[in-house]
């Protein structure tokens, strides 16, 4: 069988790869012949992801790295000599209305969801440029354009990720580097699992999605894998929505007598 995605032999760096979307991305890329550099701030999670990849015949190297720590990011970037792919998937969500949010809470979330993505992109740009076919994918969210209330700076941070990616696409396109975002809708991950354990929340969320279910991390990983592959070689500066149609349901929530109500 041919290597349809053209990923065999490439080298990827994935943040937040200890769980959730980041881990799913690492597993999927490894299954497609990519050497995965697994980054997470929790050493035990790094070890588990690396072990799972290698147990399936894939190649992986683990790094304990807090993406909000510039020195740690710089150190990891200096150790990884060849890199074709960067996937920013580390993420944080915290409750709170903006009017009540402490400055420290605002800054903590932006450090992970936006500044951390910037530090990774900046540190690995020289590596991606020298590869001749570099690709970045940053995990954003449909909340970047549909504000998610009572979630602190989450929507703000994801809006920042989208425009940062577009700027990177503009600035780095002539140097052979593409930059795109994937905006998931509802995804059941370790970070959100607590929500699904409350009453009938899981069933109600499934019912809210037109295709009938909330996404799994694997669903998002497949989209990321396509975007970093040669099959997406003419796509840059895009924000690919992967939400099962959920963001298209707004107008259907408006009462309209005579139109199916």
Q: How would you summarize the topology of this molecule?
A:
Elements: E1 11-14, H1 20-31, E2 35-40, H2 43-55, E3 60-64, H3 70-79, E4 85-88, H4 103-131, E5 134-139, H5 154-172, E6 177-184, H6 193-196, H7 201-208, H8 217-228, E7 239-242
Parallel strand pairs: 1-2, 1-4, 2-3, 4-5, 5-6, 6-7
Verbal overview:
The chain is an alpha/beta fold and 261 residues long. The protein is 41% helix and 14% strand. The model has no long low-confidence stretch (mean pLDDT 96). It has a 7-stranded parallel sheet with strand order 3-2-1-4-5-6-7, with helices on both faces. It is globular, with a radius of gyration of 18 Å. It is built from 8 helices and 7 strands; from the N terminus they run E-H-E-H-E-H-E-H-E-H-E-H-H-H-E. Helix 1 packs across helix 8 (217-228), helix 3 (70-79) packs parallel to helix 4 (103-131) and helix 4 (103-131) runs parallel beside helix 5 (154-172). The protein has a single domain, classed as Rossmann fold.
Key descriptive features of the protein:
alpha/beta; 8 helices; 14% strand; 41% helix; 261 residues; Rossmann fold; seven-stranded parallel beta sheet
- Return the average pLDDT rounded to an integer: 96
Number of separate strands: 7
How many structural domains are formed by the residues? Answer: 1
Question: What's the helix count?
Answer: 8
Which sequence of SSEs, written as H and E, runs from N to C? EHEHEHEHEHEHHHE
- By secondary-structure content and strand pairing, the structural class works out as alpha/beta
Strand content: 5-15%
Specify the CATH homologous superfamily.
Answer: NAD(P)-binding Rossmann-like Domain
CATH architecture classification name: 3-Layer(aba) Sandwich
Q: What is the third-level CATH name, the topology?
A: Rossmann fold
Rg over alpha carbons: 18 Å
Coarse morphology = globular
CATH class type: Alpha Beta
Residue share in helices? 40-55%
């Amino acid at each position: 069988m041919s290597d349809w995605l053209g990923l065999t032999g490439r080298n990827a760096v994935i943040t937040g790869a200890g769980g959730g979307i980041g881990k799913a991305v690492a597993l999927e890329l490894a299954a497609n012949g990519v050497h995965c550099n697994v980054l997470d701030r929790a050493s035990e999670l790094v070890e588990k992801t690396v072990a799972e990849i290698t147990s399936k015949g894939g190649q992986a190297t683990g790094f304990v790295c807090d993406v909000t720590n510039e020195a740690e990011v710089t150190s990891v970037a200096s150790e990884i000599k060849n890199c074709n792919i960067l996937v920013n998937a580390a993420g944080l969500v915290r409750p709170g209305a903006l009017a009540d949010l402490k400055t420290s809470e605002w800054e903590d979330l932006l450090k992970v969801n936006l500044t951390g993505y910037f530090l990774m992109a900046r540190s690995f740009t020289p590596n991606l440029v020298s590869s001749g076919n570099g690709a970045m994918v940053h995990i954003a969210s449909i909340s970047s354009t549909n504000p998610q209330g009572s979630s602190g700076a989450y929507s703000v941070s994801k809006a920042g990720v989208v425009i940062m990616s577009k700027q990177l696409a503009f600035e780095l396109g002539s140097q052979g580097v593409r930059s795109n975002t994937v905006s998931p809708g509802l995804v059941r991950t370790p970070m959100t699992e607590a929500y699904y354990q409350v009453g009938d929340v899981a069933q109600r969320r499934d019912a809210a999605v037109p295709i009938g279910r909330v996404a799994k991390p694997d669903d998002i990983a497949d989209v990321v894998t396509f975007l970093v592959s040669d099959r997406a070689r003419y796509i840059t500066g895009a924000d690919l929505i992967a939400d099962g149609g959920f963001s298209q349901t707004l107008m259907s929530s408006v009462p309209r007598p005579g139109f199916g109500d």
